[in-house]
Design goal:
Layout lengths: L14 H30 L3 H9 L3 E3 H8 L3 H13 L3 E5 L7 E5 L1 H17 L1 H5 L2 H27 L13
Antiparallel strand pairs: 1-3, 2-3
Length: 172
């Protein structure tokens, strides 16, 4: 659903109606992006969370760092790393500083897969296909503004001791 631009003197939708429309549109966008991600993951033969790890893996990362980038428990990254290794997309290596710490890094096949992933995302995500460069810059600016605001709110809520507000998703 979209809101038509109103001319001068025309009635504007009330704030609650506008907020509902924003939530609905955002939910539809997330659903559409999720379906695209599911489709891309299937073409890679992995689960969407494995695809997220491939996207987030940049250079050499410890398993803990990857968990932070994926907003999940470090124990869950072990399952993801197992899959990426089995598919030949990444490998574990002991840290040079602390051999108890395992690093995860992309293999040459993983680097090629990540490049393919980025091309797929760029050709299929709605903001890549429906928006021009100026609109995409504006969209990114708005997303960053909202994310910065929600991070601030989450930090304030976390300091107040509210449960589940630490910004970490749990994967059981």
């Amino acid at each position: 659903m979209s809101i038509d631009v109103q001319g001068p003197g025309e009635a504007q939708p009330d704030a609650s109606a506008l907020d509902r429309e924003i939530v609905e549109a955002l939910a539809d966008l997330v659903k559409q992006a999720g379906a695209i991600t599911q489709s891309i993951a299937a073409s890679f033969g992995v689960a969407p969370h494995d695809l997220l790890a491939l996207f987030k893996l940049d250079g050499v990362l410890t398993m803990k760092e990857l968990a932070q980038r994926m907003s999940c428990d470090a124990s869950f990254v072990t399952v993801v790393a197992d899959t990426l290794e089995r598919e030949g997309l990444a490998r574990r290596a002991p840290s040079q500083r602390d051999r108890r710490v395992k690093n995860l890094l992309l293999t040459p096949e993983g680097i090629a897969a990540k490049e393919r992933l980025m091309r797929e995302l760029a050709t299929r995500m709605p903001w890549c296909t429906a928006l021009d460069d100026t609109e995409r810059q504006c969209f990114l600016g708005l997303l960053n503004k909202m994310l910065a605001s929600s991070r601030c709110g989450a930090q304030i809520a976390g300091k107040s001791g509210l449960p589940g507000r630490d910004g970490t998703a749990r994967s059981e």
